[in-house]
Design a protein that fits this description.
This protein is of the alpha/beta class. It has 12 helices and 17 strands. Helix content is 26%, strand content 26%. α3 links the parallel β2 and β3.
Length: 455
């Protein structure tokens, strides 16, 4: 195991890649948040054929002389593409190691048919009856079980990516607010967002490398709130721009409103966003041109692509040098004390074990606390909290040098769960760092996956 990790690191160094050996999903999420307002990652999707999963990325390089900073792949549905999923995963690993972020989509067959299907004729464009939909979203239903079996078919590939250290920008159930696909166009708590939640709850405990991307299309934007699953299910909120050539200023604002402070992205575009649009709408953190639209003259010209690629704000492959450069997690495996714990399998030490698959759960009291002993005073500037579903809507970060007298260095009265990435305005010298929670965001006990502290 040690030799394989060393080999990976040496390969990266040989290629002059500014990528550290271990980059977490939190590192990538924090990086995306940090560039919001100043930078945008260029991206290119690669769909059919999965036997050549970098075809359109190479064409982007041929046009601009530069590889995009985001490589997009797709698990797809046609027999030949399903058979070549391994080629797609191998390319994802190569792209990550070359200095790009990896985004994966899945145009998936409905659970009423097999793993492979056609685009239409009962395939991706199929429509489920209400009875079939109810079977799909009810735990234990026939189609619900078949859906989870369908998810199991990609688990080995996601596991390979996790084992290779690849963080995946994962966008399932995309464009859920329009009914062109079998999974989309059903608003409300038992609609398309419910299938997204089921997918999240099934895969999330298995992997710590998935960045969950919620996605809508630029239609009926006044109702996208009906599809929002809650901040604890979303790391990035994204828009696919197809009904308009460029994202409108109103749709940009709609995305900011629904995202509740999460990063926003242009997950699919036919036409590359123009320099003028990116100047006005400066909080998009990536765009991804859809496959063959890159060379469609009705959407793009080589000059328009170059104009955006060559912007000072646009990041290309190898330029994402801030990911994972925040230093070591000072809290990792350090002593911990807490006000309570639900059970022996949800103990406080779980929040500093470096894994988001474990968690600390409190008892039912409203006021709770947990603190980590860094065992010596440290200069502290960033704190990361990875909430499980039961988050705190009001909480404080406190620091101390004696675990007796505490100073509040950060407070949040509108917490929404998910990943909270906290940067203090000034570094603080402290030995102890405490999370103090005093208002629940749900009806359940507080649950925290991980707390990280950085200088």
């Amino acid at each position: 195991m040690k030799s394989s990790r060393l080999c990976l690191l040496l390969c990266c160094l040989a290629a002059s890649i500014l990528r550290i050996e271990s980059v977490s999903r939190t590192d990538v999420i924090q990086y995306l948040s940090s560039i919001s307002g100043s930078k945008i990652i260029s991206g290119q999707h690669n769909r059919e054929p999965n036997s050549d999963p970098a075809k359109w990325t190479r064409i982007a390089r041929d046009i601009t002389g530069l590889f995009p900073g985001l490589w997009g792949g797709d698990f797809l549905f046609l027999p030949d593409d399903v058979q070549n999923r391994q080629s797609m995963v191998d390319e994802a690993i190569r792209q990550w190691n070359a200095g790009s972020v990896v985004a994966l989509t899945w145009h998936v067959c409905p659970p009423t048919v097999g793993e492979t299907c056609n685009w239409d004729s009962g395939g991706v464009l199929a429509a489920l009856s209400n009875d079939q939909w109810n079977s799909l979203i009810q735990n234990g239903g026939d189609l619900n079980q078949k859906w989870k079996q369908r998810l199991d078919t990609i688990v080995p590939y996601l596991q390979q990516l996790q084992d290779a250290g690849v963080v995946v920008i994962w966008r399932p159930i995309h464009e859920m607010n329009e009914g062109w696909s079998w999974w989309g166009g059903r608003p409300g708590s038992d609609g398309s967002r419910k299938l997204y939640e089921i997918t999240h709850d099934y895969l999330s405990p298995k992997f710590n490398n998935l960045i969950w991307v919620w996605c809508v299309k630029d239609v009926q934007m006044d109702s996208i709130g009906q599809y929002w699953p809650g901040a604890n299910y979303v790391d990035v909120a994204s828009l696919d721009v197809w009904m308009n050539n460029q994202p409108s200023d109103q749709h940009y604002q709609d995305m900011l409103n629904v995202a509740q402070g999460k990063p926003i992205a242009l997950a699919e575009v036919g036409q590359i966003p123009s320099p003028a649009v990116l100047e006005r709408q400066n909080r998009w953190v990536w765009f991804m041109i859809w496959a063959e639209y890159l060379k469609d003259p009705a959407f793009n010209s080589d000059d328009s692509i170059k104009n955006t690629y060559y912007l000072a704000r646009t990041l290309r492959q190898g330029e994402l040098t801030g990911i994972g450069e925040g230093g070591d997690n000072l809290a990792l495996n350090h002593p911990i004390r807490a006000s309570s714990q639900e059970s022996s399998c949800a103990n406080p030490e779980n929040i500093v074990d470096g894994s988001t698959s474990t968690r600390w759960i409190t008892d039912e009291s409203e006021e709770q606390w947990i603190y980590v002993d860094l065992e010596a005073p440290q200069s502290i500037q960033r704190v990361v909290i990875e909430w499980e579903a039961a988050f705190a809507s009001s909480y404080q970060i406190q620091t101390s040098n004696d675990a007796d007298s505490w100073t509040t260095v950060y407070e949040n009265y509108s917490g929404s769960g998910g990943s909270d990435l906290i940067t203090l305005s000034q570094a603080v010298s402290a030995r102890y760092v405490k999370l103090y929670v005093f208002q629940k965001g749900t009806a359940f006990r507080y649950s925290v996956r991980e707390i990280e502290v950085y200088s």
